[in-house]
Amino acid sequence: MRKGFTLVEIMIVVAIIALLAVIAIPGLLRMRVNANEANAQATLRTISTACESYAAANSGNYPANVTTVLYGANPKYLNEDYTLAANNPRQGYTFACGTMSTAGYTCTAKPTSCTTTGTKSFTVTTGGSLATDSSCTASGS
Question: What is the pLDDT of residue 62?
Answer without folding.
Answer: 92
